[in-house]
Amino acid sequence: MTHPVKQNSYSTLIISILFIILYGSGFVGAKLGLPFAAPLVFLTLRFFIAAAILFVIVIIIRAKWPSSLRLALHIAVA
To answer: From the centroid of its chain, how far is CA 6?
Structure first.
């Protein structure tokens, strides 16, 4: 039987490393992508790609969706 704290620390480590890689690659992606696209087009593409990645993560971890529109709006504002 695995210890829950140990498993949680592994997932925290993996998520932290992925965040650092994604955050650090933002500058490189901007440097490579901006000469070929208008800034707003580039940002739109980045947001759609980020949304797609987050959607895949939500599906994988089977996260709960907000139970009401009011709760969803509250989360969106936060």
So the answer is: 24
Q: Burial level of 42, CB count in 10 A (0-12/13-18/19+)?
A: middle
- 3's CB contacts (< 8 A; 6+ apart) are none
pLDDT in tens, 46-72: 889 888 988 988 888 888 888 999 999
Tens digits of residue pLDDT in 65-77: 889 999 999 988 9
Q: Tokens representing 6?
A: 């140990």
* Whole-number Å distance between alpha carbons of 32 and 38: 12
Which residue has 């707003």 as its token pair?
Answer: 40
